Amino acid sequence: MRQIIIIGSGPAGFTAAIYAARANLKPLLIASSVEAGGELMNTTEVENYPGFAEGIQGPELMAKMQEQAERFGTEVLYDDVTELDLTGDTKTVTLGNGETHEALAVIFATGSAYRKLGLEDEERLSGRGVSWCATCDGFFFKEKTIAVIGGGDSAMEEATFLTRFASKVYVVHRKDSLRASKIMQERAFANPKIEFVWNSEVVGITGTDAVDGLVLRHTVTGAETSLPLGGIFVAIGNDPRTHLVHNQLDLTPEGTIAVAGRSSKTSQTGVFAAGDVIDPTYRQAVTAAASGTVAALDAEHYLASLPEALLASAGEPALA
Ligand code: NDP
C-alpha cells in the first residue's frame, strides 16, 4: 500500500505530485493511457503561464511538469482507472489492466472532457469531419471551408489556429455577443479568414461519409438555413470528468466535485480533488496547478494526522 495515489496528469495532477514527492510521500500518479498530459497536450502556444515570457508549447510545459515530478520520486503509470473504492481508511484504485493499487489518500485530478452538441450525426461523423480538437486535426482541413461552434475562448483560439489551414472559418454562435476574453475576440475579429454567424444554433450536421454541411436555426426568427462546409470543430466548453466517483463523492449543482471551502477536501475522508474537476469557473493551467498544490498540502496534513500503525502499513511502494 502507498501513502498517496494521484489520479490525473494535467497541471493539477503533476503539481500535486511535485509537492507530494518533495514531502517524501512517494506518490504514484496514474496518467491516462491515451490522454496523458491532459488538455494542454492539445494546445499550441501557452502565453499566460507565468515564468515563460516568450510562451511555451502546451506539450512541452506538460513534459517539464512530469520531469519535475519524477525528479523528486513520483512514479507514473499509464493506464485508465476503471474503478475506485474511496470508502474506509484504505482506498483502492483498479486499472484497465486489472491491477489494483491501494493508498491511504487519493488526489482526484481528472480534469474535464469536451462537451458535445448532443446531435446524432455528431457521433456518426466523428473523425469524418467532426472534431473537438483543432491542434489534433486542423491539418486535415487544408484549403477547406469549416466552422467552429462556440463563443468562448476555446472557440476563438481554435478558429484563429484553424485559419492556418482552412480557406475560410465560420464561427457559429448561439448569441449575438461572445463570452470569450477581449484579447481573443479582437484577434478573431481582425482575422480576414474568420466570419461570424450570430444567433445560430446547430440543429443538424449533414453528409453521408463525411461532413458536407450544417443545418442552422436562427435563435430569434426560428428560420432554418444550411451552410455547406468541409468540417466542423465543436468548441462549446468542457464537463468535469466525474463518472468514476458519482456515487462516492458529493457533487455541486454545476457537476464538479464538491470541496470544503477553499480546501481540496471532498465529502470522503482522505480523498482530495484538484483542478478542472472542482472548478466550473476559472479553468486555467495556472489555477489548476495552484489547486494541485492545495490538494497535496491537504493530503500531507491528513496523512500526518493518521495513527502510526496505519501509516506503517503504507510501506515502500516501487512498481515492478
Ligand atoms: P466556455 O464555457 O467559456 O464557453 C463555451 C461557449 O460555447 C459559450 O460561448 C457557450 O455559449 C457555447 N455553448 C455551450 N454549450 C453550447 C451548446 N450546446 N451549443 C452551442 N453553443 C454552446 O468554454 P471554453 O472552453 O471556451 O473556455 C473554458 C475556460 O477555459 C474559460 O475560462 C476560458 O477563459 C479558458 N480558456 C482560456 C484560453 C486562453 O486563455 N488562451 C483558451 C481556451 C480556454 P453561451 O455564451 O451562449 O453560453
TrEMBL record:
Domain of life: Bacteria
Pfam families: Pyr_redox_2 (PF07992)
Note on cofactor: Binds 1 FAD per subunit.
Record has Flavoprotein as a keyword: yes
InterPro entries noted in UniProt: FAD/NAD-bd_sf, FAD/NAD-binding_dom, Ferredoxin-NADP_redctase_2, Pyr_nucl-diS_OxRdtase_2_AS, Thioredox_Rdtase
Reaction catalysis annotation: [thioredoxin]-dithiol + NADP(+) = [thioredoxin]-disulfide + NADPH + H(+)
Cofactor(s) the protein needs: FAD
Similarity remark: Belongs to the class-II pyridine nucleotide-disulfide oxidoreductase family.
Subunit field text: Homodimer.
Protein name (record): Thioredoxin reductase
